[in-house]
Amino acid sequence: MLEDWIREGSLLIAGAAAFAAGMLSFFLPCVLPLxxxxxxxxxxxxxxxxxxxxxxxxxxxxxxxxxxxxLGFGTIYTAAGAAAGAVGEVLTSPRAVQVAGILLILMGVxxxxxxxxxxxxxxxxxxxxxxxAGLMGAFVVGIAFAFGxxxxxxxxxxxxxxxxxxxxxxxxxxxxxxxxxxGLGVPFLASxxxxxxxxxxxxxxxxxxxxxxxxxxxxxIALGLLLALNRIDLLLRYLP
Length: 240
Prior knowledge:
With 240 residues, the protein is an all-alpha fold. The protein contains eleven helices and no strands. The chain is globular and about 55 Å long. The protein starts with a helix and ends with a helix.
């Protein structure tokens, strides 16, 4: 009974961490400043036109293509989560969870800037040369976005994949990466609906981008330590 409770509680914590990681990814220095450019490219509507967007048709177009963009990267991330969960099914042992914790610590140290891992600074991106046409084009851009490995988002995605592998089932891996995608997608959609609010928020937040990145790394380190030391029960005490 206690073991089942800890296992389910661990999934709750991992799910909350995955969603929060998606939200944090949106505010990282390699994503937040580029959000207007992504929204304009995907929707085919200039930022200036989006600022004055008042017609239902324009709003529907921007929202529809932004959702297709989110589904594009969500599909890739969720598939990766399924693969990580499948690997976790094979490597079902406490040692594998400890290894996952160590990997999380390494990703957190890299993200915070305490130790720069040169291999993680290489960017791997699929560039879309022409503006996408329709919903399918926006979906393809989302796929390209997911395949990109940038110095700050890549470690976060890798950390969530590590958590997915530690869950030991394909379903849980899919669940975690779907939550990560949702956490990243919700602020994208909110920004598309209210671009003026986003631009105002960005002016206030941009000075804190470095702090947000360091804080994200610290969270990964803390979670990794709990996994590596097999003390996830310390977090379970605060669950209702």
